[in-house]
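Worked example

This section walks through a single chain of length 210. The input is the sequence exactly as stored; nothing has been trimmed or padded.
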Amino acid sequence: MTAVEEERGTRDDVESIRDAVQNWALWRDAGMWDRFATVWHTDGYMAATWFQGSATEFIESSVRGFDDGVRILHFLGGTSVDVRGARAVAQTKMTISQRSEVHGVLCDVVCTGRFYDFFAVENGEWKMVRRQPIYEKDRLDPISPDAVVALDSAQLGKWPEGYRHLAYLQEQAGFTVKNGLPGLTGASVDRLYRQGRDWLDGAESPGRPH
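Given that input, the structure is written out below as tokens.
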């Protein structure tokens, strides 16, 4: 096996990881919580704009939000996987969409980026150890074509370019949103890439979440 082939892993490895990535989005968005829980490693950790914590806590928070009518939906594109032994890092193109009122106007926000996922084999199966989205660009649009929503430029400008409209809408909806998350370029995403390389090289943990 060549060095490149070793980094890519076997076809079964790659397909198993891609399946986990796809199942994450489908099962979470559909509210299939028992199945969603099977994607995660025992030490699983989720970081997002509105949540940072263990996979168990994330599932509990997601269930509460789902039951309260919160709909944060995901659409996936291509996936690239690097495998080294019993560890892997996957990157997947994605969009995050959410509908909520902004200053009394019903709006949709769509954020485009990547899921950056740390994987490890647990009990013979690939499980997600850490998920960190990378937020590349977003936009916000009123649902009604004749509606107009006036955003506070100072409030909008305090957020990174990659998810400022998503953060604005989520704050309006009552979420506590974390600043400084990884975008397309910059120190935060560079740090994430280093953590991914360290993970494949055998680091004790997948790195501190942002």
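What to look for: The beta strands are 40-47, 52-54, 72-84, 87-102, 105-122, 125-142.
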